[in-house]
Please model this.
Amino acid sequence: MLLVDPPWHPFAPALAARGLLLERLVVARAGESAAWAAEQGLRSGACAAVLLWGGRWDSAALRRLQLAAETGGALAFLFRDSSAARNPSPAPLRLRVDAGVASGGAGYRVEVIKQRGGRPGALLSLGASSDSPFVGRASARQRPFSQPHSSRSG
Amino acid sequence: MRWLAVHLPALPLEVLGLGCADSTPLAVSISRRGERILRCNPAAAACGVRPGLGVGAARALCAGLRVLPHRPDAEREALERLAAWSLGFTPQVSLAPPRALLLEVAGSLGLFGGPGALIVRVGQGLTALGYRPRLALAPAPLGALVLARQGWSPGEGLWPLVPDAPTLRAALGGLPLASLGLTRRELDDLTRMGLRLVLDLLRLPRQGLRERLGPKRMDWLERLLGESPDPRPWFEPPPAYRGRIELPGEIERAESLLFPCRRLLLELAGFLMGRRAGACRLDWWLAHGDRTETPFSLGAARPQWDPDLWLGLLRERLGRLELPAPVREVRLVVTDIDTLDLGSPEVWPDLFPRLAGTGRAPDPAILDRLRARLGSESVRGLALVADHRPERAWRWCEPGESGTGIPRADRPLWLLPEPQPLEEREGRPWLGGLLDLGDERERIDTGWWDDGEVARDYFLATTPQGERLWVYQELKGPRAWYLHGVFD
Model:
């Protein structure tokens, strides 16, 4: 698994506790080359998944990413600001994740913006528990912590 | 014994002209009754320049002609590097200076699909390295050399392939006597006898011929025909690869170095294949003339020999290289050679990846490629460390490395690189709203023995929006609040 430009340090003890093999995890600091790095990972066939954060994405870049994921048979997760939800994307699945607006307590509200072969608009509420799956929600927030959202392409 | 002779007639030019576009007229001169042209490239030949011509006359014919001095030392170096490269085809390679190599390929014919396929591969490989060889295959080394020097068939796949001694005798027989490389005196003597072809010579009674030419020349003739053995000293490859390309012109853009560097990588690949080895580290030097050289290195996590792989890494590296001055010469040094466990020899033909099919097997070189472009410090793995302090419970490591520590399900997924001070309002930390600290606190009070002393109370805090954060309060000093992690 390749993480490209995660917003903070991925915390090894928590990742290991969620069943991730740290030996199989690579973190890359790519900056301007983030799209390139993600594409390399996806195409290589050596990565099961590539997660990347930030960057500016136009539709051509998104299509390249999508194509690379299909070529390498890998999953690509792109975490973007919620404002990106308004723009079209070739990603087959787009989710918008909001924090903690589930019934009364901590949790996530997941809205399906787009899914291949399915109708958009479905809403899911996930409870927050420490044993929730790793990708239950990973956010694209930058400080300050205002309305985090992510969309995912894979 | 099957000998593949590699004759390199343009070597004096090729050692200097590597990386030079063919459109630049180029010639090499030698001091022999004044400065004379030794070899010239096709662009110069098109202007009428030819070997033997005086340099002044050559310049008059061809205004843009670059004349460089003959460099026998560079030729010798190139020949040895090509010998090392040839070891990818057979372990038995012999130097035939000044401009030829002899490969004993009897054991390799089956592997490479027969003499025809093998000779084509050797030819293609040398062409890719920037040489224009003449090749021949024969049962005797001298016979192969004489046939190769003729260069009678310039087309690939049409090189002379001589299966046995009678055919060799017939093939040599049709050549003019001058092609044997006899001394002027010997040649004049035989011509006066009315001999024209090698055939005429071979028809003469041996005893009379021996008296006429002397025993030494007669032995030579018997070896030429494969009638007497002709043992050759085998080339011993040096322990390290040292390649060098002098650029005939100055190169100012780093990307333009890719083409000449590719030839060094192909040469290195043959060198490594000959030893069934790979390298983890390639050291490059770019020479600028008077200025200090620019060094850089390429690294691979596992020993690699594949020239395409190294070329990919090189492309990324050159892309972020700032050249302080134009480049005049490129050197490549590889000292750490690791023997590969290649299993069966079927992998040999992969030396020519363009001929092999492409699969989509996982590509372990992905790390090397990322590192070549992003810098090795930017591509890392994570490992656990047995320590209670959150900032020391993990470390950056080489990807794939394991650590010893305890997984903690109660820890946040993200740790801030530096704890972020939080405002305090009404006795509670505040971040876009008062934080709900919950019921549980965890005291981490340790590290007094190693200067990393911490004394903190950690809380799982929730923002009014429902985000879950990891915050702590210092137990010393002003008891300030900090944000240290983010749960999701």
Notes: Chain B has a mean pLDDT of 86. Chain B is about 30% helix and 25% strand. Chain B touches chain A through 54 residues (CB under 8 Å).
